[in-house]
Amino acid sequence: MAPVKNTSVKEERKEWARAQRQERIIGMAAQLLAKCDIEEITLEDVAKSSGYTIQNLYQYFKNKDDLFAAVLLKKLKVMYADAESAVERTTLGIDRIITLGDKYVDFCLRNKRYFDLQMHFERKFCAYHKLTAKKTRGDFIVQCQGVIDQVSDLAIDAIKSGIEDRSIKTHLKPLHLMLLLWAQMLGVIQVITMRQRYFKEIYELTSEKFRRDFKDSIQAYLSSGQGK
Amino acid sequence: MAPVKNTSVKEERKEWARAQRQERIIGMAAQLLAKCDIEEITLEDVAKSSGYTIQNLYQYFKNKDDLFAAVLLKKLKVMYADAESAVERTTLGIDRIITLGDKYVDFCLRNKRYFDLQMHFERKFCAYHKLTAKKTRGDFIVQCQGVIDQVSDLAIDAIKSGIEDRSIKTHLKPLHLMLLLWAQMLGVIQVITMRQRYFKEIYELTSEKFRRDFKDSIQAYLSSGQGK
């Protein structure tokens, strides 16, 4: 039997302990985020609640945005896995893109603060489709961007397959159509989160009905082949 | 000749001077807003730059939001007048609603900080269609809401006339269709403001092309009569 390399086991144990601590901090930040908006949370709050100092935190995250990107990343990965498996159960391209949209809207409405986080990073770092990661950004922001690109690719593939099986009629490039659909979806999500409370009183509307109206409008647009 | 009522002239002069001062403060706040976001501006900044104390400011505005609502109100009124006259030059209902959308997108893109202001009030006060003004809000916020309701009414009228002249085919109530179109438009405006810088590099797209794609998609949806 070869002699056990004590140093490498030690290294491995250190790496494991480091990862455990990082996880603990991410979990604490997620708990704080369940209670208040990111703007209201300081690194000090996270340090205090997890029993570390701010200096400790900086050993694991580049800055506050990097830490909260790690929080978002976990949720994004779950959303991606969910969307991917839902898409596998569809056959027509148009059903695939509609299902994807549904999953995304579900995710954003059920996780309002995570949607806000996403928008926060969008505004601040502009996570673009396949834009080479800038070194100045934290690692977790780059990773979030990666997952968002994966989701975008699912949407682009769905559109391509819809064009092929003729369930989607469009003159737009799949990438451009994806961006347009995502934009419209963002607006719908925001109007629901901003005005939902008064939907019934003012509009005699429910958010379910509003989502259905939106879905119908997209379905009509994609299958009509109009919009020269 | 009746004797001049000195007291009433005095009152009128006081009222005039008060309005002048209020205008001065609104103008100063607008100038600051041209340079930075509302979150970065304090009432103290506005007081300093207009030569008043914060106490003075409170004689004219309930709070910071009320002051910036006064700033927004001026722009909104101009936008409304512009939209109204543009609509008068159209005949078909579908052209009216498309023209209105165009004017609104123009306004928001050309006045990015005013768009942000609008969203700020939306999130905070939820200005709803015809929701009775709450007394706790500042006067100017209520007035902004009034102008936004006027714009919404223009859109609803355009949809109604489109249904009548058969250029718009829909099974939705005009109020609901208006809300849906507005939501989609908000998303498109946001994606343009957030990602425009990289449109060319990443998407081989211009914001003009993106707006056109959006317009085409709405036109296709409204005239297709699909979306059961």
Walk me through this protein's architecture.
The mean pLDDT of chain A is 90. Chain A has two domains: 1-60, Arc Repressor Mutant, subunit A (Orthogonal Bundle), CATH 1.10.10; 62-224, Tetracycline Repressor, domain 2. The radius of gyration of chain A is 21 Å and the shape is globular. Chain A has 228 residues and is mainly α. Chain A is built from nine helices and no strands.
Oligomer: homodimer
CATH-derived architecture of the largest domain in chain A: Orthogonal Bundle
Overall residue-averaged pLDDT value of chain A: 90
Largest interface, C-beta closer than 8 angstroms, per-chain residues: A-B, 44 and 44 residues
Number of beta-strand segments of chain A: 0
H/E order of the elements of chain A? HHHHHHHHH
Q: How would you sum up the global shape of chain A?
A: globular
According to CATH, the fold-level topology of the largest domain in chain A is Tetracycline Repressor, domain 2
Provide a count of the helices of chain A.
9
Radius of gyration of chain A: 21 Å
Total number of distinct structural domains of chain A: 2
Reported for the largest beta sheet of chain A, the result is: none
The low-confidence runs of chain A, each spanning 5 or more residues with pLDDT under 50, are none
Class by helix and strand content of chain A? mainly alpha
- Percent in strands of chain A: under 5%
Distance between the termini of chain A: 73 Å
**Considering the protein shown, what is the CATH homologous superfamily of the largest domain in chain A?**
Tetracycline Repressor, domain 2
CATH uppermost class of the largest domain in chain A: Mainly Alpha
**How much helix is in the residues of chain A?**
over 70%
